């Protein structure tokens, strides 16, 4: 029972702990998450600003160096010398050496630049430190084709053959610019400025979001500039990056979910010079890893406290609620009428030491007195019930007897000897049957035989105008019922069917279904008024019984049957009445199965 004292104590401790720890954990978790989220956002954007400034500085130096080479008189004289068909090989070589020295000097002035190389369309390249090489293989390089065909000025991290041959086997990020013309596809000379990729990557790797969140440097196409292959492991970020790039905001924070429903945070900042994009991506699970660990610790601690609460509540209930629980169980058996079991469950007698002992001793005395009173009242009730039943039974015989005697008188006056004899024989058999008032139960077959005698009298009385039939279904041979249930219902059905019409149709149905016996009488009479139907359905059986015993009228057929069924079957009896004015009435009695040679006391009549 949930409302027992023991369960309430346990529930109190559980609710107290769950509410306190749950509220504290929820507030702590949400507040901490809000603080961490705010800190991460502001810290990430601040670090992105710092790194953005660093990138802008590096790019600015690259553009400055490119501009210096592009606008130099040395570069213009070198290009003119190599483009002049009249120039000798010696003049060209001297011009190449001069240009290489100029590139060496320029490169040394910019520490951020790893190398500068100029590629000529006819298949020559010239770099610092007197590198003058005739090799047209660079035209097949991806970076060169993308520059000529698509005007891609920046090349993401890659290995450069010039750097490898110069004992510099590291990746570089390159700036490509044409010399002497602004259109890449028409350029005769292409300048390639290499910046060591690690120079840009190392400060970026020092910026973290959470435990493992990473910031990526993306180009205009949304691809990583540096060697950050883990970017491909975040496919859900790609679509969001495209929306961010199309938007007007220069920086911001976006919250999104992956295909599994996990939450992620995306922090971004646009770089003005190259329209590159810094993107930071971290999952909330990773960002709040320590917070989740703290929450799990609180849950474990709360679980241990709940177990302790259960143990404490049980210990308290053992000394307080156990005697009360046994007392309550005994009360339930008293409520059911099982006094013997109630006395066994009542705690044993002992010296009264507290209120529980006093309540137990008082209850034990009350049970003994109650058993005596109930036994006395039950015996008196049986006697009173038997007298009431006999009184109801005596009301039936005169009711149909007077009608039958009037019929016999009418037949005798009409000199209808054969019908008179039939009525007298049927009445004699009915009277012989009805005089057995000492029997409460009779075989169902005898009740049906009694009904058929009565039907034969009605057939003679009303002739062809009466259509009276009986139908049987189920195993009815060994069943017993209270006597005289059908005859009063049939008499009423016939009576009210002839009030406003010349033909009456009455159907009697007797059927067994599982552990219930159903007796039904349906007619085509005038029906019942709604007020009477409501009164029959709503009126208490005890009130009907008292009214019948005091009634001075003959309007007792249906009420008599209902009252006797209630007296014998109690709460196991039920009935249903379906009636409409001028449409007829159907009355169905539902009785518990009572088989022959079975003890009547086995039926719990309520």
Short account of what is shown:
It is found in: Cell membrane. The chain has 606 residues and is an alpha+beta fold. It has helices at 5-71, 73-83, 89-108, 142-150, 161-165, 197-205, 235-246, 284-287, 289-336, 339-345, 355-413, 417-434, 444-462, 486-497, 530-538, 541-550, 557-569; strands spanning 113-120, 124-127, 131-134, 154-159, 171-179, 189-196, 214-218, 251-257, 263-270, 277-283, 441-443, 466-473, 480-482, 504-513, 516-523, 574-580, 584-592.
Task: Kindly list the characteristics that best describe this protein.
disordered C terminus, 6-stranded antiparallel sheet, alpha+beta, transferase, transmembrane helix, 17 helices, HAMP_dom
Q: Could you characterize the architecture of this molecule?
A:
Residues 540-546, 548-555 and 600-606 have low confidence and may be disordered. A hairpin with a 2-residue loop joins strand 14 and strand 15 (516-523). Helices cover 55% and strands 19% of the residues. It is elongated and about 165 Å long. Helix 9 crosses helix 11, helix 11 runs antiparallel to helix 17 (557-569) and helix 12 runs antiparallel to helix 13. It has a six-stranded antiparallel beta sheet with strand order 3-2-1-6-5-4. The longest helix has 67 residues, at 5-71. The chain has 17 helices and 17 strands. With 606 residues, the chain is an alpha+beta fold. It has helices at residues 5-71, 73-83, 89-108, 142-150, 161-165, 197-205, 235-246, 284-287, 289-336, 339-345, 355-413, 417-434, 444-462, 486-497, 530-538, 541-550, 557-569; strands at residues 113-120, 124-127, 131-134, 154-159, 171-179, 189-196, 214-218, 251-257, 263-270, 277-283, 441-443, 466-473, 480-482, 504-513, 516-523, 574-580, 584-592. Its EC number is 2.7.13.3. It is a multi-pass membrane protein.
């Amino acid at each position: 029972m949930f409302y027992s004292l023991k369960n309430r104590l346990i529930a109190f401790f559980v609710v107290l702990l769950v509410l306190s720890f749950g509220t504290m954990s929820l507030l702590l978790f949400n507040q901490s998450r809000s603080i961490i989220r705010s800190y991460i956002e502001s810290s990430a954007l601040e670090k992105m600003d710092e790194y953005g400034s660093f990138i802008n500085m590096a790019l600015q130096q690259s553009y400055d160096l490119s501009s210096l080479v592009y606008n130099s008189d040395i570069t213009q004289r070198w290009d003119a010398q190599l483009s002049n068909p009249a120039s000798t090989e010696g003049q060209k070589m001297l011009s190449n050496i001069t240009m290489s020295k100029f590139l060496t000097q320029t490169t040394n002035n910019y520490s951020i630049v790893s190398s500068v190389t100029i590629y000529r369309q006819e298949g020559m390249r010239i770099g610092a430190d007197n590198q003058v090489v005739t090799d047209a293989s660079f035209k097949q390089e991806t970076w060169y084709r993308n520059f000529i065909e698509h005007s891609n000025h920046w090349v993401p991290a890659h290995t450069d053959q010039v750097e490898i041959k110069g004992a510099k086997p590291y990746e570089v990020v390159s700036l490509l610019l044409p010399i002497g013309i602004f259109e890449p596809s028409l350029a005769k000379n292409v300048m390639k400025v290499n910046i060591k990729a690690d120079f840009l990557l190392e400060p970026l790797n020092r910026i973290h979001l959470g435990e493992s969140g990473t910031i990526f440097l993306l180009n205009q196409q949304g691809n990583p500039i540096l060697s950050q292959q883990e970017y491909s492991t975040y496919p859900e970020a790609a679509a969001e990056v495209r929306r961010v790039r199309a938007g007007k905001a220069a920086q911001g924070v976006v919250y999104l979910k992956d295909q599994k429903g996990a939450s992620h945070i995306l922090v971004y900042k646009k770089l003005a010079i190259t329209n590159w994009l810094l993107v930071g991506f971290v999952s909330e699970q990773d960002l709040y890893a320590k917070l989740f660990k703290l929450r799990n610790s609180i849950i474990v601690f709360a679980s241990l406290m709940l177990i302790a609460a259960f143990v404490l509540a049980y210990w308290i209930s053992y000394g307080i609620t156990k005697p009360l629980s046994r007392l309550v169980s005994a009360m339930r058996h008293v409520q059911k009428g099982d006094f013997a079991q109630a006395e066994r469950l009542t705690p044993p007698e002992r010296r009264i030491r507290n209120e529980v002992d006093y309540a137990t001793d008082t209850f034990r005395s009350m049970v003994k007195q109650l058993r005596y009173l109930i036994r006395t009242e039950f015996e008196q009730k049986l006697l009173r019930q038997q007298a009431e039943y006999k009184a109801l039974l005596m009301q039936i015989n005169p009711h149909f007897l007077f009608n039958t005697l009037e019929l016999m008188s009418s037949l005798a006056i009409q000199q209808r000897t054969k019908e008179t004899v039939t009525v007298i024989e049927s009445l004699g058999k009915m009277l012989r049957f009805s005089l057995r008032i000492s029997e409460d139960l009779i075989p169902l077959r005898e009740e049906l035989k009694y009904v058929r005698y009565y039907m034969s009298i009605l057939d003679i009385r009303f002739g062809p105008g009466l259509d009276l039939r009986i139908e049987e279904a189920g195993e009815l041979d060994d069943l017993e019922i209270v006597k005289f249930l059908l005859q009063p219902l049939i008499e009423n059905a016939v009576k009210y069917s002839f009030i406003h019409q010349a033909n009456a149709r009455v159907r009697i149905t007797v059927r067994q279904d599982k552990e219930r016996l159903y007796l039904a009488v349906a007619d085509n009479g005038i029906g019942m008024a709604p007020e009477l139907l409501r009164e029959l359905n709503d009126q208490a059986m005890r009130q009907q019984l008292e009214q019948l015993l005091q009634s001075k009228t003959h309007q007792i057929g249906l009420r008599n049957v209902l009252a006797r069924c209630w007296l014998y079957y109690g709460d196991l009896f039920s009935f249903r009445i379906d009636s409409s004015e001028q449409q007829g009435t159907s009355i169905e009695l539902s009785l518990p199965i009572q088989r022959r040679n079975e003890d009547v006391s086995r039926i719990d009549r309520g």
